[in-house]
């Protein structure tokens, strides 16, 4: 029984938690951009890739200088630098590209197409600078708890391993989310962002400067994208193309939670992550511990092969859209 | 077609002729064939976006379905595969469809409440396990047959030209299913939904080996045109090539490419004519009226969603045909090479650059952007060697820049898209 | 005679090619209430928006305390001491009452607690509900939030577009009382009203607009007494 629980924790809960935190951070960026700029930013996945790339380069720089984070990955020290460069880049694209359409009050679809153009450029830049190969940049300690230690402590047959990156992911995500909600809820700038998202015309009538709100939003979105990208890269590995593919689960998370709702983005991230992990995990091990030996299952008890994880996020997305068009946490419907 | 547009087409033609002169006619024709196919894909997207304002970013999925149709229709039949698992597959798929149909019936038929949700979950779970129970053994049986070259259900061995309309039909069927669920949604939700569908179509094609061998690829599909080797052995052809003063290998390859170009060109012309007729018909006017003001059109009694479904299916069918043509041209289906950047977003660049809402614009965009997509790489390489000429040999920057030149094409395409959107948002040949 | 505190003089303009306003003039003196009434489609709201700079004028001027502000954006007019309460969508529904008021004072860098207390004194119910999302309040309370938000800038002119639209008669009387209180503090009020009779009763000055032009202009009481105005616009 306990073994089943531990196996469940080890193979479903902990990975799902880490993945969910990464998705939630990504979805937060998408949802903020949607709330303030009112379009679905297709370049977000590549913004994550860009931020991660800058952080990796900075990590390599630090490592060559002999600086390391000790037990923690060096990338955490390089992270602020990655955020800074990404924020500058994103502000540049806003100034050069998006602002023009904002002034024109272009339709959201046009902005989506514009973001496709930005996506192409960013994707190309990332490939141009760091290439398409897989880059591993995690260093420091590998595990917080190893399976062996866990077994020794508890005397259970099944081990629980928690990787450092998983721990860092969850801790960082909690810190970032708390900071973000404090910013949105308590500071003058944060409140003005919420006001702008809620009712743009009235925000203008109150003297809120739209350009400033937009800039702050881009900076936050860049920071969230970089953090999410680096955490994902540390946890798995960095490959330019996987970030583009993350776009689908991230959008699914943002929409399931309700586009424009930060709380919804977080909930959506975990809903998507846990569904993906649950549906694609082979439950044989857990079930074997639960049932008497002679009833142990022959098959893997896997609902779907891992290659179909996109299908899972997608199915949830469609179900939510059909039955709750504004998402779990009442996002914007128009 | 006015003077300006003809000039634009002439300029694009010059690009291809120039490539023929300066590089080789062989590669120029190679680019042309893919450009013809791209133009058809762009035409399909233009039907959806230009006529009706439907934002479909699942082009890749329909292209892939078209390719799948070629394998299913024209590949060699796999002896024994049908007997081993054909019935199981069909039965399994029917069970799956029944489950979904049953779920819809439950949802519509029962009144709201916990009971409905429970029954729904029950139906879905039971259906899923029944499906797996029937389907899995059949798949295993089929995949066990001659796995080195086949291991799939095999094709029907039909002539490959027949596969093209079949590709359109397959894509249309998928579009119907997608449209039924997603067309009522807002524009950017539809975009994300189609993006997802495309990924799922591809995931199915990569993983369901029984269907088309997945990432093991299906190769040597039949061709509608003669093989180069056969031409090179035909005395008549050899004499003819000698007449023209051409080396037989080059000549055979050029002739084959010309045959393809003729076939593709015919399809393109037919589709352009049909699209133009449709655009100018009352139906086309109504589509555009709906696009420009959905609320007013709805108030005038137009079935907006039904019209959208129509045009979505038509556009997807056109893309499916193009996908089938592409697989025919390649003589192989390689699901691993389908990426959204290449097969969805590039097509969008073509439509936007050419001029959304205008069929000629979409065709022009298809030709121009495909040429650019192919040629940016050598141009980028040339540029990089020029830039790095002053650097010391073997310096890491030089090596890196030269290695990365290949990625210039994404940046170029993005810049082209952004520049056109900014300075000529209606494209090269704007909608009338 | 000196010029009124705020005047939109001889305003001509509209949203598209066709003009909605034809030489319309509106003015309000310091600490007074001016009310714009007229039939549907007379351009009442449009005239308000023109005064606030939300509409491009082809002719005419807007002057505030003698200064020509015709070319200023609405945001710049807010900074000059004008405040506007739109007819609909006039609160931040997802934010609390207090946050709504804070957003009203966004441009101010000084201590806003005093002003906020004044608003709460004016609308005591808002103090009780200050931590509730404004979207959860009743129609009349929402209007109070909307007016309160506008007052937070400490405006010299408060412009209200149909503040009583969709509220019950009792709430309407209550709102009018509050508006008079606001005017007594020296704030000029310019408002569009559908309930012409009640509005003219509290008006120092009334404007009857028809087809984008002034038809009658007089004190509120005089308009109420005018038989023609009564017959045509006040329902006898």
Automatic annotation (TrEMBL), chain A:
Provenance organism? Cereibacter changlensis
Q: Where in the cell is it found?
A: Cell membrane
Q: Signal peptide span per the entry? A: none
Q: Which GO terms describe its cellular component?
A: plasma membrane
Name one molecular function that GO assigns to this entry.
Answer: L-valine transmembrane transporter activity
Q: What is this protein called?
A: Amino acid/amide ABC transporter membrane protein 1 (HAAT family)
Keywords assigned by UniProt? Amino-acid transport, Cell inner membrane, Cell membrane, Membrane, Transmembrane, Transmembrane helix, Transport
Membrane topology note: Multi-pass membrane protein
The family classification in the record reads: Belongs to the binding-protein-dependent transport system permease family. LivHM subfamily.
Q: Which domain of life does the protein's organism represent?
A: Bacteria
GO terms in the biological process aspect are: D-alanine transmembrane transport; L-alanine transport; L-isoleucine import across plasma membrane
Query: Mind telling me which Pfam families this protein's record contains?
Result: BPD_transp_2 (PF02653)
Task: List residues traversing the bilayer.
Answer: 12-37, 49-71, 77-98, 110-130, 160-184, 213-234, 310-329
TrEMBL record, chain B:
Q: Name one Pfam family in it.
A: BPD_transp_2
**One annotated Gene Ontology cellular component of this protein:** plasma membrane
Q: Which GO molecular function annotations are given, in alphabetical order? A: branched-chain amino acid transmembrane transporter activity
The portions of this protein that span the membrane are 30-47, 54-75, 81-105, 117-135, 155-177, 189-205, 254-279, 309-329, 341-361, 368-392, 404-423
Q: What is this protein called?
A: Branched-chain amino acid ABC transporter permease
- Source taxonomy lineage? Bacteria, Pseudomonadati, Pseudomonadota, Alphaproteobacteria, Rhodobacterales
The compartments listed are: Cell membrane
Topology within the bilayer = Multi-pass membrane protein
Asked if the record carries the keyword Ligase, the reply is no
Which InterPro entries does the UniProt record give?
Answer: ABC_transp_permease, LivM-like
Q: Per UniProt, which keywords does this protein have?
A: Cell membrane, Membrane, Transmembrane, Transmembrane helix
Q: Decide whether keyword Cell wall biogenesis/degradation is in the record.
A: no
The protein's organism comes out as Cereibacter changlensis JA139
Tree of life domain: Bacteria
Automatic annotation (TrEMBL), chain C:
Question: SUPFAM superfamilies of this UniProt entry?
Answer: P-loop containing nucleoside triphosphate hydrolases (SSF52540)
Query: Start and end of every ABC transporter domain?
Result: 6-236
**UniProt family annotation:** Belongs to the ABC transporter superfamily.
Query: What name is this protein filed under?
Result: ABC transporter ATP-binding protein
Keywords, comma-separated and alphabetical: Amino-acid transport, ATP-binding, Nucleotide-binding, Transport
Q: Which Pfam families match?
A: ABC_tran (PF00005)
**Transferase listed as a keyword:** no
Q: Which Gene3D superfamilies match?
A: P-loop containing nucleotide triphosphate hydrolases
Q: One GO molecular function term?
A: ATP hydrolysis activity
Xref: SMART domains: AAA (SM00382)
GO biological process terms, alphabetically, are:
L-amino acid transport
Keyword Transport listed? The answer is yes
């Amino acid at each position: 029984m306990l073994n089943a629980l531990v196996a469940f924790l080890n193979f479903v809960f902990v990975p799902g938690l880490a993945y969910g935190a990464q998705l939630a951070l990504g979805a937060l960026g998408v949802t903020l951009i949607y709330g303030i700029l009112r379009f679905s930013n297709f370049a977000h996945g590549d913004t994550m890739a860009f931020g991660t790339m800058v952080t990796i380069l900075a990590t390599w720089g630090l490592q060559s200088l002999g600086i390391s984070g000790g037990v923690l990955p060096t990338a955490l020290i390089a992270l602020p630098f990655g955020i800074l460069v990404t924020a500058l880049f994103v502000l540049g694209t806003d100034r050069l590209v998006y602002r023009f359409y904002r002034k024109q009050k272009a339709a959201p679809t046009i902005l989506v197409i514009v973001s496709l153009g930005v996506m192409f450029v960013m994707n190309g830049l990332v490939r141009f600078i760091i290439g398409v190969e897989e880059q591993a940049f995690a260093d420091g300690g590998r595990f917080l708890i190893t399976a062996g230690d866990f077994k020794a402590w508890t005397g259970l047959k099944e081990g629980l391993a928690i990787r450092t990156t998983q721990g860092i992911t969850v801790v960082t995500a909690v810190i970032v989310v708390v900071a973000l909600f404090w910013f949105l809820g308590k500071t003058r700038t944060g409140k003005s962002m919420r006001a702008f998202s809620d009712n743009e015309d009235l925000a203008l009538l109150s003297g809120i400067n739209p350009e400033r709100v937009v800039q702050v939003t881009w900076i936050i979105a860049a920071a969230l994208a970089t953090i999410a990208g680096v955490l994902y890269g540390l946890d798995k590995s960095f490959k330019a193309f996987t970030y583009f593919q993350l776009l689908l689960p991230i959008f699914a998370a943002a929409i399931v939670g309700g586009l424009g709702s930060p709380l919804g983005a977080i909930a959506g991230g975990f809903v998507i992550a846990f569904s993906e992990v649950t549906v694609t995990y082979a439950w044989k091990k857990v079930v074997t511990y639960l049932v008497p030996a002679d009833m142990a299952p022959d098959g893997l008890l896997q609902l779907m092969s891992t290659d179909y994880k996109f299908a899972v996020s997608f199915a949830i997305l469609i179900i939510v859209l059909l039955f709750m068009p504004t998402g779990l946490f009442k996002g914007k419907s128009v | 077609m006015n003077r300006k547009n003809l000039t634009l087409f002439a300029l694009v033609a010059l690009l291809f002729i120039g490539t023929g002169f300066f590089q080789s006619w062989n590669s120029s024709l190679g680019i042309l064939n893919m450009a013809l196919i791209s133009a058809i894909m762009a035409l399909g997207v233009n039907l959806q976006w230009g006529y009706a304002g439907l934002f479909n970013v699942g082009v890749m999925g329909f292209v892939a379905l078209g390719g799948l149709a070629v394998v299913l229709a024209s590949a060699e039949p796999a002896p024994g595969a049908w007997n081993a698992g054909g019935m199981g597959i069909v039965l399994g798929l029917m069970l799956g469809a029944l489950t979904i149909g049953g779920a819809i019936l439950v949802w519509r038929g029962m009144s709201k409440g916990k009971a409905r949700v429970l029954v729904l979950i029950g139906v879905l779970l039971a259906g899923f396990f029944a499906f797996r129970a029937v389907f899995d053994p059949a798949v295993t049986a089929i995949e066990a047959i001659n796995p080195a070259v086949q291991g799939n259900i095999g094709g029907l061995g039909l002539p490959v030209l027949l596969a093209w309309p079949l590709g359109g039909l397959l894509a249309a069927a998928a579009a119907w299913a997608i449209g039924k669920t997603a067309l009522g949604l807002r524009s950017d939700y539809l975009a994300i939904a189609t993006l997802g569908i495309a990924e799922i179509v591809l995931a199915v094609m990569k993983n369901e080996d029984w269907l088309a061998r997945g990432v093991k690829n299906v190769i040597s599909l039949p061709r509608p045109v003669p093989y180069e080797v056969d031409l090179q052995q035909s005395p008549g052809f050899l004499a003819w090539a000698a007449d023209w003063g051409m080396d037989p290998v080059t000549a055979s390859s050029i002739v084959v490419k010309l045959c393809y170009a003729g076939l593709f060109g015919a399809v393109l012309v037919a589709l352009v004519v049909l699209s133009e007729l449709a655009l100018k018909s009352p139906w086309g006017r109504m589509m555009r009226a709906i696009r420009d003001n959905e609320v007013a059109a709805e108030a005038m009694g137009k079935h907006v969603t039904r019209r959208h479904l129509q045009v979505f299916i038509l556009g997807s069918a056109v893309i499916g045909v193009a996908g089938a043509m592409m697989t025919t041209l390649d003589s192989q289906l390689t699901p691993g090479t389908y990426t959204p950047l290449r097969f969805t977003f590039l097509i969008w660049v073509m439509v936007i650059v050419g001029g959304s809402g205008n069929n000629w614009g979409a065709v022009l965009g298809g030709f121009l952007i495909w040429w650019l997509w192919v040629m940016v790489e050598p141009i980028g390489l040339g540029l990089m060697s020029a830039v790095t000429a002053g650097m010391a040999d073997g310096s890491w920057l030089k090596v890196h820049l030269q290695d990365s030149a290949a990625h210039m094409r994404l940046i170029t395409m993005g810049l082209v898209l952004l520049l056109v959107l900014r300075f000529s948002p209606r494209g090269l040949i704007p909608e009338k | 005679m000196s010029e009124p505190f705020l005047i939109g003089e001889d305003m001509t303009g509209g949203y598209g090619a066709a003009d909605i306003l034809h030489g319309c003039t509106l003015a309000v003196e310091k600490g007074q209430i001016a009310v714009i009434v007229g039939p549907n489609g007379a351009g009442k709201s449009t005239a308000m928006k023109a005064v606030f700079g939300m509409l491009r004028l082809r002719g005419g001027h807007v002057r505030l305390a003698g200064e020509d502000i015709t070319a200023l954006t609405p945001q710049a007019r807010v900074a000059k001491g004008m405040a506007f309460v739109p007819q609909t969508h006039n609160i931040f529904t997802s934010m609390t009452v207090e946050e709504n008021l804070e957003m009203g004072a966004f441009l101010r860098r000084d201590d806003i607690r005093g002003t906020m207390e004044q608003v709460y004194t004016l609308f005591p119910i808002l103090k009780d509900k200050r931590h509730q999302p404004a979207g959860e309040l009743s129609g009349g309370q929402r209007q109070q939030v909307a007016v309160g938000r506008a007052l937070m800038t400490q405006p010299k002119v408060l412009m209200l577009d149909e503040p009583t639209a969709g509220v019950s008669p009792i709430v309407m009387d209550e709102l009018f009382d509050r508006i008079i209180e606001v005017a007594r503090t020296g704030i000029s009020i310019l408002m569009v009203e559908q309930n012409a009779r009640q509005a003219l009763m509290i008006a120092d000055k009334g404007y009857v607009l028809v087809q984008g032009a002034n038809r009658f202009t007089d004190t509120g009481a005089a308009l109420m007494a005018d038989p023609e105005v009564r017959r045509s616009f006040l329902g006898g």
